[in-house]
Design a protein that fits this description.
Helices cover 27% and strands 41% of the residues. The protein is α+β, with helices and mostly antiparallel strands. Strands 2, 3, 5, 6, 7 and 8 form a six-stranded antiparallel sheet that branches. It has a two-stranded parallel ribbon with strand order 1-4. Strand 6 and strand 7 form a beta hairpin. Pfam families: MaoC_dehydratas (PF01575).
Length: 154
């Protein structure tokens, strides 16, 4: 899908209730999981010990940290939309976030988004984005929720 480009509040608002797009597929490999474990000091065996996971995990493999899956959101979001005439964008909050299915090491994930709400707050655009991080070949998403961003247009 082609990247959406918007340059103003009115352009953005025209997508209310519509699918904004989807990112490219991204492989979540063991190296990415290990680097995340190092960055967060979360070295739980189900994430970083493939040999133990083969034997003891119900998935027979290591899995990505839930917060690693969440942390991929900005990278994939930037593939979906380009906002021109922007001074600044701020992550404002997350709501209704649920981890649905573990991301097994080696799986591919992508982000799918819909514009759920949009408000003009004295020149600041507050956009509520429904999102799902899908796992290739899986019915249930790895993660879903509602992200709120503040866009400060020039």
């Amino acid at each position: 899908m082609e990247q959406l480009v918007v340059s103003s509040y009115d352009e953005f608002a025209s997508y209310l209730g519509k699918k904004l797009g989807e990112s490219e597929w991204l492989t979540v490999d063991q190296e990415r999981i290990n680097l995340f474990a190092d960055a967060t000091l979360d070295h739980q065996w189900i994430h970083v010990d493939p040999e133990r996971a083969k034997v003891e995990s119900p998935y027979k493999s290591t899995i990505a940290h839930g917060y690693l899956t969440l942390s991929l959101l900005p990278h994939m979001w930037n593939q979906i939309i380009k906002v021109n005439n922007l001074k600044m964008m701020v992550n404002y909050g997350m709501e209704k976030m649920r981890f649905g299915t573990p991301v097994i090491t080696g799986s591919r994930v992508r982000l799918v988004t819909t514009l759920d709400s949009i408000e003009n707050l004295r020149g600041i655009c507050r956009a509520g984005i429904k999102f799902q991080i899908e796992i290739e070949g899986q019915r249930k998403p790895a993660l879903e929720g509602l992200a709120t961003f503040l866009y400060y247009f020039e």
